[in-house]
Amino acid sequence: MVESSPIQRPFIGRKCGMTRRFVACALSVVAIAAAPALLAGQDQKSAGADATAVITKMENEAIKAGLANDPAWYQKYLASDFTGGTSQGTWDTKPSLLADMKDTKNNNTSTQTLSDLKVRQHGDLAIATYSTTYDGMYHGEKYARTVLCTDTFQHQSAGWMLMAGHCSEAAKK
């Protein structure tokens, strides 16, 4: 024979009332926890449209800054731990990219165009994919090519920051 503990005995006969209170409490907790997600979902479309507009502007400004060899955009919008994979098969960091911009004799862009830009948002992350065609010099070697790029942005307290990017040479047509 199994005995009930003295702690359980006072609730005998009131089990149904406790179950109702538990269910009501559980439903309240679920409703409170779900409310922010439901409210955020209402603004998802407009937030996505805003992110697309902001990141489109940022991508175009980055090209203008590169053509002018102006490091201000990169200083402001690259994350401190930014990583970029180049179409030359090397890695860039924020410090290395800013240092390259100071060496205008060996690193410069003569022309650059952006096309097929698409931005998609996933919460506080956004992915931009695009093609860019450029003519310039990188580490003393001349390059003229079209590359396919992916940039990953994160929305932080200061706004959208470029966390990582990667470009690969496009297939020759």
Describe this structure in words.
- The chain is an alpha+beta fold.
- The chain has four helices and six strands.
- The protein has a six-stranded mixed beta sheet.
- The longest helix is centred in the first third of the chain and has 28 residues.
- The radius of gyration is 27 Å and the shape is globular.
- The N and C termini lie far apart (84 Å).
- The N terminus is likely disordered.
Structure keywords:
six-stranded mixed β-sheet, 173 residues, alpha+beta, 39% strand
> What spatial order of strands do you see in the largest sheet?
2-1-6-5-4-3
Determine the structural class based on helices, strands and strand pairing.
alpha+beta
Given the structure, what is the number of helices? 4
Sketch the topology as an H/E string, one letter per element.
Answer: HHHEEHEEEE
What Rg is obtained from the alpha carbons, in whole angstroms?
A: 27 Å
Largest sheet, in brief, is: 6 strands, mixed
Helicity range of the residues? Answer: 25-40%
| Structural shape | globular
What's the rounded overall pLDDT mean?
81
**What low-confidence regions span 5 or more consecutive residues with pLDDT below 50?**
1-14, 22-46
